[in-house]
Q: What sequence folds into this?
């Protein structure tokens, strides 16, 4: 890039980010606290608001571990086993990214709703999925499902199976090999995947609004509470709720940022100290694949 | 030993239990271990690219086999120190594998495999990824180490010189078949087939038979017998000289001479000479000896 274009390109890039993200998010913060901190505080400490916050956190606590376990499992299967239909599983993993969350919600109603395929069977056992907590967790888990797989799979493919085989020859059981060798090797990719999953579950709206019924104080998550507040002409509640949601996401991103910082640092120290065989270079380049892929 | 793609590594992996054989069995110490999983076989395996545990320090790499066996900490520490000393990387104990050179990493992998006191040590092209100088040093070192630790070792290589240098017994494998098994000298001197002969060292054709070029002699006296030929090219390769010959009866061959012998003969391309097997025509053998002096 020539020096002549450097400044204009920078201005365009920063301006784009400012117009789309910084200014709107800043406006939310401004609107939330426009009438003072106390007003905002009261708006988000109503029973409904607190319940929405609690419900959102509960969904995160269940859906994220589910997606993490499933994601690592699928990534392991896709990278370590060859079987017919593997490409199908691979393609299905991306489906939640490709289709609208609203469709995810609707499909859950079709299967688990009162008139759905399993609805009667579940109802007979006193289990209500749709318009209830399980449905919210399921919708959230489905829409956030691809992230862990997509972050972990390339790392697994990159590190290969030799280290696991070495562990086996040294007497490690498959579980010990996973715990002591595979998991530490995929740690960074996994951390990034979990972060994205958490952020996605926190912000999920379209799928949840379809399956939850959006009942304040019962099946209303934080995003639904915000949307409801706007409709009910309670702008301070909406903006203050939005601030809380944004803060939660910022915390999640801060954890990710720290993880990234550690990663960069480790790379630097590694490349400085390692002896300069060509072979070392190849080892270094293979660990680069752990860098996050853009979604 | 054998050419690349011949099945050497696969055989080694079958011995280790990393691959299952279609037929046949794996016996170690007279015990049938064919169906026994890798982790219970007690084999030490060194991968071609060492497969270091990248996130663990050198010390933890070597300790791994003992840690998964839940040995007492003090015992592990003592044993690991001993092994790091043995492979001469004690000063690198707290480094990560990425901070080691290729040769150091190789020795770490060896110490890691030895830590579990394996019944058999399996080395897959242990020097394949190293540059020539380091390879030579490590070969000598490995031979010495092996005399110290006395563990039956199976080493896979495609380099015949390397195999001759480190092995007591050689097995030549080609295209999935075992061609010949025996001591280095035995196989070199009495190859059972053309493949083994050609693989173990240079070979050339004379009188319808394969022969080692250093087992041929050249002389200028028609009375001493042999095949008449004309010198095509003389190539000086340091301590040895390669002489390419065009046989008068058709065909060609080449002869490996010592520098002294070549100087004495003073060969130039176009010269008329006779070539014979040194073992067959006794007079010419005498001549070589004389010439070499």
A:
């Amino acid at each position: 890039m020539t020096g002549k274009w450097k400044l204009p390109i920078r201005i365009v890039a920063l301006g784009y980010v400012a117009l789309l993200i910084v200014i709107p998010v800043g406006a939310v913060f401004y609107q939330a606290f426009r009438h003072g901190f106390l007003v905002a505080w009261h708006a988000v400490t109503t029973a409904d608001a607190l319940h929405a916050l609690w419900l959102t956190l509960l969904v995160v606590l269940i859906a994220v571990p589910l997606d993490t376990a499933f994601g690592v499992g699928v990534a392991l299967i896709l990278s370590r086993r060859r079987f017919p239909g593997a490409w199908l599983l691979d393609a299905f993993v991306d489906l939640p990214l490709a289709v609208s969350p609203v469709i995810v919600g609707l499909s859950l109603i079709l299967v688990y709703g009162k008139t759905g395929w399993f609805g009667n069977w579940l109802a007979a056992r006193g289990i209500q999925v749709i318009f209830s907590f399980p449905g919210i967790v399921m919708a959230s888990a489905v829409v956030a499902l691809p992230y862990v797989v997509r972050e972990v799979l390339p790392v697994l493919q990159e590190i290969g199976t030799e280290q696991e085989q070495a562990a086996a020859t040294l007497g490690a059981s498959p579980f010990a090999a996973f715990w002591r060798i595979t998991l530490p090797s995929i740690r960074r990719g996994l951390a990034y995947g979990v972060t994205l999953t958490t952020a996605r579950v926190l912000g999920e709206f379209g799928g949840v609004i379809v399956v939850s019924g959006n009942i304040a104080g019962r099946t209303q998550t934080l995003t639904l509470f915000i949307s409801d507040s706007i409709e009910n002409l309670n702008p301070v509640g909406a903006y203050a709720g939005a601030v809380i949601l944004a803060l939660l996401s910022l915390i999640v991103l801060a954890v990710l940022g720290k993880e990234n910082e550690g990663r960069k640092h480790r790379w630097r120290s590694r490349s400085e100290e390692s002896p300069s065989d060509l072979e070392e270079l190849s080892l270094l380049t293979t660990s680069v694949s752990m860098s996050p892929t853009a979604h | 030993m054998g050419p690349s793609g011949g099945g050497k590594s696969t055989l080694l992996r079958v011995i280790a239990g990393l691959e299952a054989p279609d037929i046949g069995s794996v016996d170690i110490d007279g015990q049938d271990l064919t169906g026994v999983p890798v982790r219970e076989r007690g084999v030490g395996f060194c991968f071609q690219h060492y497969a270091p545990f990248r996130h663990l320090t050198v010390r933890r790499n070597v300790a791994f086999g003992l840690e998964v066996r839940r040995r007492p900490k003090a015992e592990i520490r003592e044993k690991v120190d001993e092994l790091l000393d043995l492979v001469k990387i004690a000063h690198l104990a707290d480094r990560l594998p990425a901070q080691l050179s290729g040769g150091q990493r190789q020795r770490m992998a060896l110490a890691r495999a030895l830590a579990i006191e394996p019944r058999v040590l399996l080395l897959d092209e242990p020097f394949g990824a190293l540059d020539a100088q380091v390879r030579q040093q490590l070969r000598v070192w490995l031979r010495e180490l092996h005399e110290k630790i006395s563990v039956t070792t199976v080493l896979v290589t495609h380099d015949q010189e390397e195999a001759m240098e480190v092995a007591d017994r050689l097995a030549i494998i080609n295209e999935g078949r075992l061609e010949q098994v025996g001591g280095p000298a035995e196989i070199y001197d009495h190859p059972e087939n053309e493949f083994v002969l050609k693989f173990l060292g240079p070979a050339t054709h004379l009188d319808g038979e394969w022969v080692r070029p250093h087992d041929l002699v050249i002389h200028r006296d028609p009375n001493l017998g042999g095949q008449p030929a004309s010198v095509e090219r003389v190539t000086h390769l340091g301590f040895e000289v390669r002489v390419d010959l065009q046989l008068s009866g058709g065909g060609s061959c080449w002869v490996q001479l010592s520098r002294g012998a070549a100087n004495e003969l003073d060969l130039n391309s176009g010269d008329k000479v006779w070539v014979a097997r040194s073992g067959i025509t006794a007079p010419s053998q005498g001549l070589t000896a004389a010439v070499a002096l």
